[in-house]
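User: I'll paste a sequence; please echo it back and then give the predicted structure.

Assistant: Echoing your sequence first, then the prediction.
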Amino acid sequence: MARIPPVAPANESAELKTVFDQLRATRGSVPGMYRTLAHQPAILAAHRAYFHAALDAGVLPRPFKEKIAWRVARLRGSEYSSTSHRRYALRHGVAEAELAAIDRGDYTALPPRESAAPNFAEAMVKGRGTVDDAIYAALSQHFNPAEIVEIAALVGIMELASSLGAVFELTAD
């Protein structure tokens, strides 16, 4: 059971409408993470804006970013984020077998461009933000600066989401 009760649909204030409407449009519903953050609307809006920029928008394709999100959630041991991003990955066309391989840290079936990103994400999570020069160089062979910022930002927001899911003891929607 969550430590903080989520804001129920019947208690959605006008202040939450913009963010919640965007979530319904992009996610199909308002996930528990956002209903919990809704107790502090400014933090909710900032978190959603960051997550939207890193995952929903940007230059890299959503299925590719869901693979990264899935890997970070699994590395962080976040049941909440793992369940959510597994579902989103499948919805965006990522195959079960591909998710299973990524979960094992096996990126060999991915094209070289794609394998550099989860390898970077794994190094970023395990290194607590520090990434070996060789891993960064491998990433920069395949991605331009804007794409690298997008990948690193996605890893960062997934780490935050995993931490929030743990501290609030959120269960998957």
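The radius of gyration is 16 Å. The chain is about 65% helix and 0% strand.
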